[in-house]
Amino acid sequence: MTTRGMKKKRKAEIEIYIVELRFLNYQFYKLRRSLYLMSPLSCLHSIKRFKSLIDYQFPFYTLSLLLIDYKLLTNITSVQWEKIKNDYDAKVKFENIRESTMTVLKEIEHLAEGSLTKAYREFLMKQAEYAFTKEETYFKIYAHVISVMKLHPEYLEAQRQYTTEANTCIQIWSPIIDSIFELPTLKIMWGDSINGQSSIAKKANQESNKKCIGDKIDFRVCCKDRNKLVDLLNGEIAKDQTNNKKYFDDHAKLCRESKIISDQFYSSPHVKNKEKKTLKVRGIQLCGIEGEIIETRLVEEGLYTFSVLGSLRLPIPEDHLYRLRTLIERLFEIKRGCLALARIYRKMKEARKDFEKNMAKNRNTRRSPGSNSDVEDHDAVIKSVKYIGWVRGSWFPPSRSNSKVYDGSLPAFLLSPPLLV
């Protein structure tokens, strides 16, 4: 068989596989809607598609859980199941630490088990040796965490009476986040700042013409664009995990703000569909000394998925310093994602400038009367507005002054599923 024939066969297999996944994706729509309504699964055929995981602020079923539920309801093979997981819930391959740096870190970690002071001195010396390099970040973060272990152990031991949210932010996480994102092109905004796009999205969600202010975010990673900042990543911080309401409120806010960041790329006609297909917006939710990475993607019309890529965990005793290696690897992956978004934004900005300069693109050109351009133009328009048409508005919870009490009767199984006899 020739190379050309092999390529054609491979392309045909891919097209068939995509059709199968689209069918399964439609089934996921109906399953999400069924889970929300708490209705019997036998009525799936009569339920409309569940457009988004965040529409009703319902507890967030992750995509992996939905896939597991779907597997129990169908007779798909193990091979098909692995393909679905790899496409819809694929694990991120984090970049490994350089072997030479890994060896040095392990040696000093072993030294820290006997003396934190000696290990701290070694990390400071290595930090000076590798100044203004990527390796410096590792030694700087290690030195910071050992300093917290030595001077403020109550922060890592989660002693609530000695810890506030500001302590968690300033004393623990802000030096780590700053070390990772230290670049001339990036800017970290700390302390309840607001993304301008969030205010615009909230204004579009309100019926009145009153001035709207978007949600306040604990920290934002932005790229500099002359006299303005463009959001690339949002983060929320809490002092511990004991307050469930605080945790889910932060989670909902983080998902919503990540969606708003992604919408400025998905809704732009100056970003190629190839880039939109692989576009991902990450968020960081931190609770005390633990946290998780959330990824937002637009996968279908009106459907935004929010999946957890991995956890972030600080060490408590001296013999758990190896956890910092995993934490730094994952934070560097988030940084690479932010830089990728910044590159897409710069391309989008340049494409918009070129479009505005070239006036021929803004007006219709003459066509030959005999050309069959209607079909070609129709296909081109559908392809160009694929992601633009998928974008939908953002839902914000109403303020207390606008909240209304529902006087009607509620469904019998709104808050709990029916008992199966």
List the helices and strands and how they pair.
Layout: H1 3-37, H2 63-73, H3 78-88, H4 99-112, H5 116-129, H6 134-151, H7 153-156, H8 165-180, E1 186-194, H9 196-205, E2 216-225, E3 228-238, H10 244-266, H11 273-277, E4 281-287, E5 290-300, E6 303-313, H12 323-357, H13 373-384, H14 386-390
Parallel strand pairs: 3-4
Antiparallel strand pairs: 1-2, 2-3, 4-5, 5-6
Helix pairs in contact: 2-3, 4-5, 5-6, 6-8
Could you explain how this protein is built, in words?
There is one protein chain. The protein is an alpha+beta fold and 421 residues long. It has 2 domains: 3-88, no CATH class; 99-348, no CATH class. It is built from 14 helices and 6 strands. β4 (281-287) and β5 form a beta hairpin. It is globular, with a radius of gyration of 25 Å. 27% of the residues are buried. Residues 357-376 are annotated as: Disordered.
The chain-level mean pLDDT equals 75
Q: Which percent bin holds the helix content? A: 40-55%
Count of DSSP E strands? 6
Following the backbone from N to C, one meets helices and strands in this order, namely HHHHHHHHEHEEHHEEEHHH
What proportion of the residues form beta strands (DSSP E)?
Answer: 5-15%
> What profile does the largest beta sheet have?
6 strands, mixed
Q: What is the first-to-last residue Cα distance?
A: 59 Å
- SSE class: alpha+beta
Radius of gyration equals 25 Å
Main sheet: which strands, in order across? 1-2-3-4-5-6
In total, how many domains does the architecture comprise?
2
Shape: globular
Region (Disordered): 357-376
For the structure shown, list the relevant keywords:
421 residues, alpha+beta, six-stranded mixed β-sheet, 6 strands, 51% helix, globular
